[in-house]
């Protein structure tokens, strides 16, 4: 059992001076203020919960659709940037391919390297396809959904698939949401051309997450508010934001925080395998991607295609652009954990998994603890 303290510790949504966190094996067993004499000081630094990314396709040259070892490598890449709980996102493929990719990730969920699996496609709108291969898009197949959930069982009553993104306006869209909710899987609205009314109906059916808000959906208009306004208005919905300064303007990010608060905002990276790599040409969801100056776009179009963002940069961008540090940390930790039902993550709290980060004065990650073990961070000595 060890007790760690630092100048500032993020407890109950705020930074406290001389707070402390006591860790035993892979769990936090106690937190408090006024550190006991046997504590290990981490100096002039901030201790915060490990980041939680619920939408990531890969990183460090590896993708989550490439097999077990590449998926493990991608998770390790993001761990070095502070993401201690990561949901592996699988993009559109044929149904047999997608099922196989999901099953390949189940062992990584079982051993805690991944926090779960996210299926982003193929039940998406062709009009809002982004980088997804339009030839593979289709209305929801309820039999297949039930089958893949069954095949990805981790333990009795627990499925490795935590979230499915779909366009609710498609045939069988609402029944698919109802099926997911019944099976304990989060239904997310994304890559959708839904109207305001269709989005309201989808939320009423049980959808609770907006996949990368603003992106992959029609922009709001005062006479046709569309999905964006419906998603922001309903307090049951958590909205993902890709805070790389490209996908969403910083002013829009700030407006969302002002409108709904950090408890309903989940920072996500939507990172692809090119994250952390040189500019060049890559593949995503069957489409050729060109990365230039760190921005990924379809080769033959101007459409954005995922990002090369990491969660540590997302937090730093937010604070640089005027978001309070407490709100930025919440959006990168507690909010996404709550949205996906990861009940032992996202906070420094008794009984939670021992996932914590040490940040320097520039909010760079200098030390990472995952499940009670320290691992090397980007920029660490």
In DSSP terms (H or I, runs of 4 or more residues), the helix count works out at 10
The level-1 CATH class of the largest domain: Alpha Beta
Distance between the termini: 24 Å
> Globular, elongated, flat, extended or rod-shaped: what is the shape?
globular
Radius of gyration: 20 Å
Q: How does this model look, in words?
A:
By secondary structure, this protein is of the alpha/beta class. The protein is built from ten helices and 25 strands. The protein has helices spanning 68-79, 95-110, 142-151, 173-182, 196-205, 226-233, 250-260, 311-320, 325-332, 334-339, and strands spanning 2-5, 8-11, 14-17, 19-24, 27-33, 40-41, 46-49, 51-56, 58-59, 62-63, 83-91, 116-120, 153-155, 158-159, 161-166, 186-189, 209-210, 238-242, 265-268, 280-284, 287-292, 295-298, 356-359, 365-370, 373-375. Strand 21 (287-292) and strand 22 form a beta hairpin. Helix 5 (196-205) packs across helix 6 and helix 8 packs antiparallel against helix 9. The model has no long low-confidence stretch (mean pLDDT 95).
Summarize the structure.
This protein has helices spanning 68-79, 95-110, 142-151, 173-182, 196-205, 226-233, 250-260, 311-320, 325-332, 334-339; strands spanning 2-5, 8-11, 14-17, 19-24, 27-33, 40-41, 46-49, 51-56, 58-59, 62-63, 83-91, 116-120, 153-155, 158-159, 161-166, 186-189, 209-210, 238-242, 265-268, 280-284, 287-292, 295-298, 356-359, 365-370, 373-375. With 381 residues, the protein is an alpha/beta fold. Strand 16 (186-189), helix 5 and strand 17 (209-210) form a beta-alpha-beta unit.
